[in-house]
């Protein structure tokens, strides 16, 4: 019976079920649960940062120290000057579910430290080219901005020129530094609202965990249900084949009764002698088995 499950169809089904369960447990569920963990951590950092006062940049991220992830979203203050001549556009962005272009302008502090500042966004449908974006002030000024981590750069999507302006697709201080000739810290600054040189405000993310947790639990459930479903199909197949086998075996054991002999004539009120009488053409009845008395009467009547 179990040789049935060595057929190609069942083998393929088993491989598909195992592959799907492995995909659910080791790729899809961890992916969604990981996104949920990242979102929760980001929300915790934002809640903490919003409740903190603005402090000088050197108190949170002193020069020469690597970016600390727990400092992201903290609001800091910097004294210095913009470098609008080294402005860079970040293309193909989305703000409030609409296309946008973000503007990066270097900001050099009073002690000569360079920071990459995201001044906000402009809409590409405003009928103006990137070069028409309002310039940042050039004088000495103080700005407030939030620390943001480096977004990195995907292969093939580095620095380029668009509409005669330096442009990038992601905010990567290393890549922008190669365009501008400046050396930035390995994070950038998101300019707060109503600051000198600010453009369209990029609001803080909503503190919503999203559907990632439920998606992750669903993938775990699918990973459990797939083997259970396959086991049920195998059980049903075995049960069906056993039922067919038992039915066939019981059919072979049924005996066929031979036809019953005819009821003896005597049971119907006839004697054995009467049942054996034979008549011949031109002669009397065959009385070979008759009694002596009957024979005598027949001889007297017919002669003999």
TrEMBL record:
It comes from the Bacteria. CDD domains: SURF1. Pfam families: SURF1. Residues 244-293 are annotated as: Disordered. It is a multi-pass membrane protein. Its main location: membrane. GO terms for cellular component: plasma membrane. The chain crosses the membrane at residues 12-33, 212-235. It is found in: Cell membrane. Keywords: Cell membrane, Membrane, Transmembrane, Transmembrane helix. Belongs to the SURF1 family. This is SURF1-like protein. It comes from Gordonia asplenii. The lineage of its organism: Bacteria, Bacillati, Actinomycetota, Actinomycetes, Mycobacteriales.
């Amino acid at each position: 019976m179990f040789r049935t499950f060595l057929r190609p169809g069942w083998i393929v089904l088993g491989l598909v079920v195992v592959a799907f369960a492995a995909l659910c447990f080791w790729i899809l569920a961890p992916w969604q649960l990981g996104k949920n963990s990242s979102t929760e951590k980001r929300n915790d950092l934002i809640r903490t940062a919003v409740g903190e006062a603005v402090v000088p940049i050197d108190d949170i991220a002193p020069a020469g120290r690597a970016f600390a992830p727990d400092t992201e979203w903290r609001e800091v203050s910097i004294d210095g000057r913009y470098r609008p001549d080294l402005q860079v556009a970040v293309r193909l962005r989305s703000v409030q579910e609409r296309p946008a272009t973000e503007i990066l302008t270097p900001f050099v502090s009073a002690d000569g430290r360079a920071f990459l500042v995201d001044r906000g966004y402009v809409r590409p449908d405003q009928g103006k080219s990137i070069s028409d974006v309002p310039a940042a002030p050039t004088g000495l000024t103080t700005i407030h901005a939030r620390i943001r981590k480096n977004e990195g750069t995907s292969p093939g999507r580095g620095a380029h020129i668009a509409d005669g302006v330096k442009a990038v697709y992601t905010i990567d201080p290393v890549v922008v530094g190669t365009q501008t000739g400046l050396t930035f810290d390995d994070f950038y600054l998101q300019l707060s609202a109503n600051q000198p040189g600010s453009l369209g405000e990029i609001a803080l993310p909503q503190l919503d965990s999203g559907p990632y947790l439920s998606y992750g639990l669903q993938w775990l459930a699918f990973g459990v249900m797939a083997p259970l479903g396959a086991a049920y199909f195998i059980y049903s197949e075995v049960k069906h084949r056993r039922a067919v086998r038992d039915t066939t075996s019981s059919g072979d054991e049924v005996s066929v009764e031979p036809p019953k002999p005819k009821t003896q004539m005597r049971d119907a009120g006839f004697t054995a002698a009467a049942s054996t009488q034979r008549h011949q053409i031109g002669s009397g009845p065959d009385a070979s088995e008759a009694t002596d008395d009957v024979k005598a009467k027949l001889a007297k009547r017919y002669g003999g």
